[in-house]
Amino acid sequence: MTRVVVAMSGGVDSSVAAALLKQQGHEVIGVMLRLWSEPGKEGSNRCCTPDAMAIARRVAAQLEIPFYAIDARQVFYDEVVSYFLTGYSQGITPNPCLACNRFIRWEFLMEHARALGAEYLATGHYARLVPEPDSRKVQLLRAVDRSKDQSYVLHVLNQEQLVHTLLPVGGIKKEHVRTLASQFGLPSASRPDSQDLCFLAGEDYREFIQRHAPQSLQPGPIVDTTGRPLGTHIGLAAYTIGQRKGLGLSSAEPLYVLDKQVALNTLVVGPQDLLGSRGLLAGQVKWISGSSPADQFRAEVKIRYTASEAPASVTVLGDEKIRIVFDQPQRIITPGQAAVLYQENLVLGGGSIECAL
Amino acid sequence: MEDLIYLDYAATTPVDPLVLKAMLPFFIYKYGNPSSIHAYGQSAENAIETAREEVAGVLNCQPKEVIFTSCGSESDNLALRGAGLALREKKSADQILSSLAEHHAVSHTLQSMEKYMGFQVGWMPVDENGKVLPETVSQLIGPKTALVSVMLANNEIGTINPLAEIARECHARSVLVHTDAVQAGAWLPLDVQKLNVDMMSLGAHKFYGPKGVGALYVREGTPIVPAQTGGGQEQGLRAGTQNVPYIVGFAEALKLAEKEKENRIALVKPMRDRIINRVLESIPNVQLTGHPVDRLPNHCSFAFKDLDGNLLLNLLDQAGFACSSGSACKTGSPEPSEVMGLLGLPREWGLGSLRVTLGVLTTMDQVEKFLACLPELVEKARQLS
Predict the structure, then answer these.
(1) Are B227 and B208 in contact (CB under 8 A)?
(2) Position A194 confidence tier, pLDDT thresholds 50, 70, 90
(3) A100 noted as active-site residue
(4) What is the C-alpha to C-alpha distance for residues A104 and B120, in angstroms, rounded to an integer?
(5) Ramachandran category for residue A313: left, alpha or beta (phi over 0 → left; psi -120 to 50 → alpha)
């Protein structure tokens, strides 16, 4: 029997993951992390409300597996919330879920799983892990259910982490996961799918920044591409590349955010045809297999969690940097978001977007 | 569960098979309502009145001074709210004194009375062992003090309070005394005359009785009004059809506890001392919490520096040992318990509490297994904390 720690959330995916592992004969331990919430908003944190925890506990009891809640508030604040606030103060649009997976789930929780004697950490993510032929490595593949695929947020994991990871629902369609949940008779949280960050507790991220990093929200000029002033912005952190709504400008043609000039605290806007770029530079690139497939290669690239893949040519530049040139210009290349590289279903790796080219 | 070693008898205990046997006839054969006139009612009434006599025998009081309730917390609520209201009406005394180390059943009840009923609550400090000193009580009693409530033994750190002396100070000033004896019930003498208390709360599941039944001793003549109203059951102080089988179970368990008390103490005390000594000598940066001598004979409690007690509990559970911690929290948001703060421990010790409590099924073999595992698990938890 292999001992497996399952990261539970009270949601249907991790509950079914736990049930499947138990059914496969593993010795399963359910664990739920208590993440950081703003004082007074613990009840609306999307990931770990007391309600969600009560449901996860019920699921574990029904599966007859032990369940432990682990306090991750401090480490979550230090690694994820701080990164989020610092990112906005530096003018990028950070993706805290990546930091959470990397530092909280696959480092902090993985360490706890090991201390509990587990060989594997399992989650309810929609993605697949398969052995790489003729090696001891594993490959990260997109989920069978493409509409639910979460491989984008897992590209930050390394081999050492992935070989100790199980993703039991990645090979199953979401609707079948729901059927399994009812077949197993599992209670689960009916939680609306949402892209919101857990610690925002349903609030607009700008209000959160206003409270926690007000220096990131200093008003400044809005200019066009020639430098002509058009108005005043409320703070660069409140805008993202490609944004049209909420600029407060009147203009004959719709204007879009083209660039955030942090040093000048200036927001550059322009018409749609100026938005977008053929290429980007990404840094801190990680390869799932440990190395790049070639110095130059073709790949499909996803530049946001919700974006569709776009075909591109990739050049490896060294120093963990790559240059990506798309076949068609991309409108929403946003520094701070990840560019994740795919070939068919295979995740090659990815990096953090530094700038459009 | 059969592989697990249970070291959490202060949380609850298994029901003694003899107790269960005494209870069983009252579920499906002798199921009458004690208030009914007919034979069924009479036999049920006979059962609870016999139980009341038996309990009174152990407490050394009159049967009519025993009120059955649903649990120790309900007994605390009835004592504090019931006597608080009656004493305020009778003597216009609206202050209640209690200690900072009380169980939430007392402290939260008093906070609620303060907020919603206009009572004044005086919180008495404890010494570095968590003990309430009689001189503190006599200093803080004032003209408005109606009632003093001090627990007989502390659930978290096992410290025993000098109740008889505290009561003497109170009675000298005509102030009534309540004690929460829930944690002490299994181990300490419960003679209310010797303890000199006016009210005393007990819960059966701490001494091998069932969960869901408790009792409150109320000395005859104590001003008290019901906290739950309705029918006239339990001297009019606790309305609701009596839970006959559980009351029978309460009495049976208390009788057994009284009869076996010396044997039980002789069994657990050497194991308690073995744990305390061994933990203090084999693990760095640990200290005993609570009084070294005046503590429950089955109770070990420690504070570990730089350690998340919850995490240690998880690791212990996984290794097969069921223990408890003062900061235990099922949602992973541990906070230092109030009691740990009272002992003057710095913050880096505050989350690291561990409570190990023994009972009649504990063996020295289990204790040695526990002691063999603990140092490594503490080390692991410290690395993760």
Answers:
(1) no
(2) low
(3) yes
(4) 46
(5) beta
Element (H, E) at A315: strand A310-318
Alpha helices per DSSP H over chain B: 17-23, 25-28, 39-59, 72-77, 83-91, 104-117, 134-140, 163-172, 192-195, 244-282, 309-318, 338-342, 347-350, 364-384
Q: Closest Cα partner for B12 from B264, B216, B144, B185? A: B185
- Hey, what are A63's tokens? 């599966």
Angle, in degrees to the nearest 10, between helices B39-59 and B244-282 = 30
Model pTM score: 0.86
Torsion on CA atoms A71, A74, A78, A79, rounded to nearest 10: 0
DSSP A331: S
pLDDT > 90 in chain A, percent? 60
Length of chain A: 357
Q: Contact B6/B366 with Cβ under 8 angstroms?
A: no
For residue A224, give the nearest of A273, A271, A272, A278 by alpha carbon: A271
Report the alpha-carbon distance of residue A352 to residue B13 in Å, rounded. Answer: 56
Structural domains of chain A, with CATH: 3-200 (3.40.50.620), 218-274 (2.30.30.280), 277-356 (2.40.30.10)
Residue B247 and residue B66: Cα distance in Å, rounded? 11
Q: What is the pLDDT, as a whole number, of residue B1?
A: 60
- Which one, of B161, B239, B233, B232, lies nearest residue B200 by Cα? B161
In this predicted structure, the answer to whether residue A188 has a pLDDT above a threshold of 70 is: no
For residue A15, give the amino acid letter: S
HSE-CB of B313 using CA atoms within 13 angstroms: 30
Contact call for B311 and A57, based on CB within 8 A: no
- The verdict on a CB contact (< 8 Å) between B329 and A111 is no
Provide the 10 A C-beta neighbour count for residue B360: 19
Q: Does A189 have pLDDT greater than 60?
A: no
Q: Which residue has the tokens 């003597």?
A: B91
B300 counts as catalytic: no
Give me Rg for the CA atoms of chain B.
21
Side chain identity at B142, as an amino acid letter? G
Q: Which two tokens stand for residue A273?
A: 């045809």
Predicted local confidence at residue A47, as pLDDT:
67
What's the gap between Cα B53 and its chain centre?
Answer: 22
Please give the Cα distance from B11 to B126 (Å, whole number).
23
Give me the pLDDT at residue A76, please: 94
**Would you give the DSSP letter of residue B295?**
B
Rounded CA-CA distance B83/B161 in Å is 22
Note whether A19 and A48 are within 8 A (CB). Answer: no
Q: Domains, chain B, ranges and CATH?
A: 5-12+261-384 (3.90.1150.10), 17-257 (3.40.640.10)
Q: State which residue of chain A sits closest to B329, comparing Cα positions.
A: A69
DSSP of A168-230: TTTTS-HHHHHHHHHHTT----------S-GGGTTS-HHHHHHHH-GGG---EEEE-TT--EE
**How many Cα neighbours within 13 Å face the side chain of A61?**
8
Which one-letter DSSP state was computed for residue A48?
A: -
Rounded (5°) CA angle A67-A71-A75? 135
DSSP conformation class of B233: T
- For the complex shown, is ipTM > 0.85? no
> Would the pLDDT of B184 be above 80?
yes
In whole angstroms, what is the distance from residue A251 CA to residue A244 CA? 12
Chain A's closest residue to B382, CA to CA, is A115
Contact A42 B332 (CB under 8 A): no
Q: Give the Cα separation of A53 and A48 in Å (integer).
A: 6
Instruction: Tell me which residue in A29, A68, A73 faces B333 most closely, judged by beta carbons.
Output: A73
Contact B56, B65 (CB under 8 A): yes
- Residue contact A115–B315, C-beta within 8 A: yes
User: Residue B192 corresponds to which tokens in the numbers above?
Assistant: 């209310």
